TrEMBL record:
<dbReference type="GO" id="GO:0005829">
    <property type="term" value="C:cytosol"/>
</dbReference>
<keyword id="KW-0520">NAD</keyword>
<keyword id="KW-0862">Zinc</keyword>
<dbReference type="InterPro" id="IPR013154">
    <property type="entry name" value="ADH-like_N"/>
</dbReference>
<dbReference type="GO" id="GO:0046294">
    <property type="term" value="P:formaldehyde catabolic process"/>
</dbReference>
<dbReference type="Pfam" id="PF00107">
    <property type="entry name" value="ADH_zinc_N"/>
</dbReference>
<keyword id="KW-0479">Metal-binding</keyword>
<dbReference type="InterPro" id="IPR002328">
    <property type="entry name" value="ADH_Zn_CS"/>
</dbReference>
<dbReference type="GO" id="GO:0008270">
    <property type="term" value="F:zinc ion binding"/>
</dbReference>
<dbReference type="InterPro" id="IPR020843">
    <property type="entry name" value="ER"/>
</dbReference>
<protein>
    <submittedName>
        <fullName>Alcohol dehydrogenase 1-like</fullName>
    </submittedName>
</protein>
<dbReference type="Pfam" id="PF08240">
    <property type="entry name" value="ADH_N"/>
</dbReference>
<dbReference type="InterPro" id="IPR036291">
    <property type="entry name" value="NAD(P)-bd_dom_sf"/>
</dbReference>
<dbReference type="InterPro" id="IPR011032">
    <property type="entry name" value="GroES-like_sf"/>
</dbReference>
<dbReference type="GO" id="GO:0051903">
    <property type="term" value="F:S-(hydroxymethyl)glutathione dehydrogenase [NAD(P)+] activity"/>
</dbReference>
<dbReference type="InterPro" id="IPR013149">
    <property type="entry name" value="ADH-like_C"/>
</dbReference>
<feature type="domain" description="Enoyl reductase (ER)">
    <location>
        <begin position="18"/>
        <end position="374"/>
    </location>
</feature>
Amino acid sequence: MCDILDAVIKCKAAVAWAPRKPLVIEEIEVAPPQANEVRIKIVATSVCRSDLYCLLENLADICYPVVFGHEAAGIVESVGPGVTEFQPGDKVIPIFLSQCRECRFCKSPKTNHCENTSALLIREGMPGPPSRLSCKGKKLMLFGGTSTFSEYTVVNQIAVAKIDPAAPLDKVCLLGCGICTGYGAAVNVANVEPDSTCAVFGLGAVGLAAVMGCKAAGAKRIFAVDINPDKFEKAKVFGATDFVNPNDHSKPISQVLAEMTGGGVDYSLECVGNVEIMRSALESCVVGWGVSVIVGWTELKDLATRPVQLMVGRTWKGCLFGGFKSKDGVTQMVKAYLDKKVMVDEFITHNMTLDQINDAIELMKGGKCIRTVLSVSPK
């Protein structure tokens, strides 16, 4: 239970005190929302690979302590001055990618970026968004401007999407990142066409969502590429038609796909976050018109290919959050889920509580789950 005292809420959160260390369930203080902010009771959150990447791999100059988590859903508890779009009781999904609707990016149909998006992680000497979370006298850094591994959090209103009151929060929380990222990469960024051939590299939640997007766009053949064959049955549920394990072949995977398709696929989507696989995905595309989209997140290595790979007519693109204008896109995807036009429940392989978050992290590290949903606060 959470105690409210002078508008400061005391509640539980999973705090990362240092990199590569287990998260610690602590009692934290959540100050009231200030101008243009929304305080949200998080009902459900899930563990995304980006949380693990930042906790375990991307360690340079990151400020700690921090509360991770960015794929969640909850209920508005209170709002600060200037907030007119939300009121207490609204069901919402916080989003790491803002949509202020006022900057040049938000006003352009060419991108889903927003000038006012918070950095995913705050580095030393870098100004970060104001945090209303603290523990043991120390300010807790916000992750992606959301920090959802907490019973309560405070988010700027430009990074919150209001959703249909009928939406089950313990399901649609997944639309805060992974599903929109993969699905949108196929339908919004690659612009997959009917009767085309596609290859999706990596069959985590983002990759499976990309498979689902390719199917929704009308692709006739969808190659699911992963070194874990146990994932192929799951990929079939989302629409994959062919399955390729690179470990089963002595040739480069690009050559294997070229032989299977008469020259290469029309579209490829890299959903791992590995620069070598990004290059393989590009080279798996047919010359002349092939489009390859980088979806997996990494900042650790440079990306390279030979110029001729692009000079022959391939296009190499990247995307963030599947190209969706975030607030609009999340609301749209929740409606699509309620209308049974996209799958969400099928991504959930485990259900746990916030207290079990380190167990959930171990499941993901070991590749033993697609998505684990954590119950945070009672509905």
